Structure to design on (372 residues):
């Protein structure tokens, strides 16, 4: 089956002038600029943006500065390791744990840009493509569309197309791709690769299991936040889900994007893990069909678990949840009291008619599960 990918792909350089024009005339544009750069010269920013001619220029001159501004305002520092696993001679599918809608992949691109490594294309859920400003900025930032929802037949059809597109990006466009290890963000703090994602990647090629996945150079990415993005919103969703089927509000995804950007994050660490080797794929190939993917998922999970950074918030949450002092040597009494105050204030602001103890258990589990 052949695809033209017109409904999937991001913008090309030829489409940059159109997209920039749309952004400059969007009513939300000044609001976003004012948040990122309060008091900035709006006319100068409009002039700088109007001179952008390529995707690379947009990413380096606009997105890189914007994400760095967000990190400066909302975090206490970004650290990283493993960038030596990447170079411009090889293309990878970065398969990452997913904690924040925007920042997980954006932070990777910031680091790639700062180390003169080509940026990657990024999956962009159709549920997030709401509002012209979001769509235009996303497609200028090399984000491509993945259709969410639909019946089983539609789901399989969409999976075939996105699988074919990602292989096209790797093989024909010679670019890397970022994709989450699961459908949607991790809400409970447990980073686990969904087998459906791995199977989807294999749909676009009829080669053997090993040859099929080896040419994609699967490279796990682990990102860790001292303060979990949208932690209180995730707590509310998990609580409500215990009682009834959770239904997202109309602008809930947009609210999560804004909250993730604005909320304090403390320290952030990104780890580029060792790519999955051909030898590991050959070991997986000794299993039966589903078990091959299960074993591959376990290897990816192990890489991500080892690459994660454990912060004092995780240790504090674990000890509070288990009513122990097992990890007390990792934090001070003041840090513990500050975290408790942070938790109680945030949960109180949710204004949920819920048992306080139950909400606290859910909240603490989000932070503690990486230690379990």
């Amino acid at each position: 089956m052949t695809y033209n990918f017109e409904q999937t792909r991001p913008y090309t350089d030829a489409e940059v002038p159109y997209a920039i024009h749309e952004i400059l005339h969007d009513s939300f544009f000044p609001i976003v600029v004012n948040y990122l750069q309060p008091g900035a010269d709006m006319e100068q920013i409009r002039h700088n943006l109007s001179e952008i001619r390529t995707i690379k220029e947009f990413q380096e001159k606009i997105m890189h500065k914007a994400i760095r501004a967000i990190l400066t305002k909302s975090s206490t520092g970004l650290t990283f390791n493993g960038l030596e696993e990447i170079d411009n001679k090889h293309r990878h599918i970065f398969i990452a744990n997913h904690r924040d809608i925007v920042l997980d992949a954006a932070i990777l691109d910031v680091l790639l840009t700062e180390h003169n490594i080509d940026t990657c294309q990024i999956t962009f859920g159709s549920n997030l493509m709401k509002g012209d400003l979001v769509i235009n900025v996303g497609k200028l930032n090399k984000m491509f569309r993945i259709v969410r929802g639909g019946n089983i037949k539609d789901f399989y059809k969409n999976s075939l197309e996105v699988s074919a597109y990602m292989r096209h990006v790797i093989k024909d466009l010679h670019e890397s791709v970022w994709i989450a290890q699961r459908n949607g963000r991790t809400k409970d703090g447990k980073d686990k690769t969904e087998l459906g994602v791995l199977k989807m990647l294999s749909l676009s090629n009829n080669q053997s299991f090993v040859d099929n996945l080896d040419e994609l150079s699967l490279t796990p990415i682990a990102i860790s936040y001292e303060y979990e993005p949208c932690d209180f919103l995730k707590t509310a969703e998990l609580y409500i889900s215990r009682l009834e089927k959770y239904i997202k509000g109309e602008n809930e995804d947009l609210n999560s994007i804004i909250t993730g950007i604005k909320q304090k994050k403390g320290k952030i660490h990104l780890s580029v893990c060792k790519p999955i080797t051909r030898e590991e794929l050959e070991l997986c190939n000794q299993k039966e069909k589903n078990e091959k993917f299960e074993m591959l998922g376990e290897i990816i999970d192990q890489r991500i678990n080892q690459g994660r950074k454990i912060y004092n918030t995780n240790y504090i949450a674990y000890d509070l949840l288990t009513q122990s002092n097992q990890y007390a040597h990792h934090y001070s009494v003041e840090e513990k009291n500050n975290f408790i105050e942070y938790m109680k204030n945030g949960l109180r602001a949710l204004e949920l008619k819920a048992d306080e103890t139950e909400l606290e258990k859910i909240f603490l589990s989000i932070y503690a599960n990486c230690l379990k």
